[in-house]
Structures are given as structure tokens and as C-alpha cells.
Design brief:
The protein has 276 residues and is of the alpha+beta class. The protein has two domains: 153 residues, Fructose-1,6-Bisphosphatase, Chain A, domain 1 (2-Layer Sandwich), CATH 3.30.540.10; 110 residues, D-Maltodextrin-Binding Protein, domain 2. It contains eight helices and 18 strands. The chain has a seven-stranded mixed β-sheet with strand order 4-6-7-8-9-10-11, with helices on both faces. A hairpin with a 2-residue loop joins strand 7 and strand 8. Helix 1 runs antiparallel to helix 3 and helix 6 runs parallel beside helix 7.
């Protein structure tokens, strides 16, 4: 495996926020494990599942960070619905999905994660993902490198065998099937149930690509910072997701492909005519 280099030195402002973000996420992992598979489900305005653990992690992570950085902006998937979109006006913004893969979490399936992103002027500069299934806290971004539980990690090399995997989020509808069928010509599909982990696993080289039609910015912002380290390419079908200029709980789904250079070269020519 190739070692990931940190690149240019990060600013003191980002370094301080990186340290605080790590502490805030790490402090919630015990609570997440304690209620895994046991948290009572509630249902949000859009029909998706939420638990008290989602709400508690969102609230307490931001309480920790606000005390240290009151000038920053803070946005969560678990924001109360009904508000108008909010412009990102502060230099630094935090976006959290407190439990990405809530269905899995509530049902005792360990493919779920805390996903927290730090954005500078709307661009992810550091991501923090706690992968519950592997009990690993990942963090990293451009100028930082990529770390697992504080230790530098390496990306797996480009695959050389015939087993090529694309992670894909569910659900999809009939209009997406031509794209899925094009992928199936050369790749196998895996649906892990967490948009954050799908993209993180591409960045780590555990899968070749991920294809998503239903994610929002809070699902992918943290892992997008990882991709900037490992050279994974992101192709957004409806225009770039970053920089983020407004936070809108009712934003349209993001449709995108993320892939290693090799997989992107193979897949994009096949998919581009189907994604216009």
C-alpha cells in the first residue's frame, strides 16, 4: 500500500478545529455503542428514521464545538424542519450527520457512522468519520493526510484482479436502472446502507467506486475531504456539490459517482450519456 503524504502545512485555525473535532466525535462513541440496536425509532417529516441517539450526538457535538468556536456556523441533518435555507457566511462551517445509516443502527446492523465535516468557505477541509462496525475513528483532509485512530494510514493500491466493486446507496427508482445496468456490465454492487461509509471506503481503496442518487451534503462532506487526500475523483451529475453556499434541509438529492482514476476512466464514458 502506498503511504499518504500530508502535503502543505495546514493553518493554525484548521489545526485547532481538527483537534476539537476529534475530541467531540470521540467523546460520543461510547454513547453510540451503548444504544446500538436498542434505540427507539421516531419518524421525521420526510418519512426517514431518527433516534434519540441521532439527536443527542448532534446536540452535544455542537455544544462542545460552539464553546471553542462561537464564530463558526453549525448545521445538522437533524435540524428542525421548516426553516428557510441559510447562507454560509462564516469562514468555517461544521456539518454533521450524527448517525449516517440510522436504519442500520436502529436494527443492530453495524454499517453506520458519525460523520462530521469542517468546511472552509464551503469546501471540506477536514472530515471525521467514526465507523461503528470497525470501531475506528477516521480523520483527514488536504494538507493533513489520512488517519485511523491517530495513526497514518495508506490507501489500497488499484485493483489488479477481476473483482471490481461499486458501492451504491438504496433506494433507487426505475429511472436509475439504465445507469445501474451499465455499471453491472463490469462491476459488482454493494449496498452498505451508509452514504458516508460508501465514499470513505472509496477514499480508502476498499471499493473501486460509489454511485449515489439520494445523498445530501451532510452524507458526503466528511468523506469528500478524504478523497482530496487520496486522489479519488468525484463527478457530480447535476453540477458540483462544493463549495456549499447555503444549507438547506430540503435540498435536492445529490447524484454522483466517486471513483479511483482507473474506475472513473472505465465508468464515466459509459454513464455520462445516461446521466444528462
Amino acid at each position: 500500500m502506498s503511504q499518504l503524504t500530508a502535503g502543505p502545512k495546514i493553518s493554525d485555525a484548521i489545526a485547532r478545529r481538527m483537534s476539537a473535532g476529534l475530541m467531540a466525535v470521540r467523546a460520543r462513541t461510547g454513547h453510540m455503542h451503548e444504544h446500538f440496536g436498542k434505540a427507539e425509532s421516531m419518524w421525521k417529516h420526510d418519512g426517514t428514521r431518527v433516534t434519540a441517539v441521532d439527536l443527542a450526538i448532534s446536540r452535544t457535538v455542537f455544544e462542545d464545538l460552539r464553546r471553542k468556536f462561537p464564530e463558526d456556523q453549525f448545521f445538522s441533518e437533524e435540524t428542525e424542519p421548516g426553516g428557510a435555507p441559510v447562507a454560509l457566511t462564516a469562514p468555517y462551517t461544521w456539518i454533521i450527520d450524527p448517525v449516517d445509516g440510522t436504519n442500520n443502527y436502529a436494527l443492530g446492523v453495524p454499517m453506520c457512522a458519525i460523520s462530521l465535516a469542517l468546511l472552509e468557505r464551503g469546501v471540506p477541509v477536514c472530515g471525521f468519520i467514526y465507523d461503528l462496525g470497525t470501531r475506528t475513528l477516521l480523520h483527514g483532509g488536504p494538507g493533513i493526510g489520512l488517519f485511523a485512530d491517530g495513526a497514518p494510514i495508506a490507501r489500497h493500491p488499484e485493483p489488479t484482479g477481476d473483482t471490481k466493486i461499486v458501492a451504491m446507496h438504496s433506494p433507487i427508482d426505475a429511472r436509475h436502472m439504465p445507469v445501474v445496468n451499465a455499471v453491472l456490465q463490469a462491476y459488482k454492487l454493494r449496498a452498505y446502507g451508509s452514504g458516508a461509509l460508501h465514499l470513505a471506503y472509496v477514499a480508502l481503496g476498499r471499493v473501486d467506486a460509489c454511485l449515489d442518487f439520494t445523498v445530501r451534503v451532510w452524507d458526503i462532506a466528511a468523506a469528500a475531504a478524504f478523497c482530496a487526500v487520496t486522489g479519488v475523483e468525484l463527478w457530480f451529475f447535476n453540477g458540483p456539490a462544493f463549495p456549499v453556499t447555503t444549507f438547506d434541509l430540503h435540498m435536492k438529492p445529490i447524484r454522483y459517482l466517486a471513483a479511483s482514476a482507473q474506475a472513473m476512466a472505465e465508468l464515466r464514458p459509459k454513464l455520462e450519456p445516461l446521466c444528462r
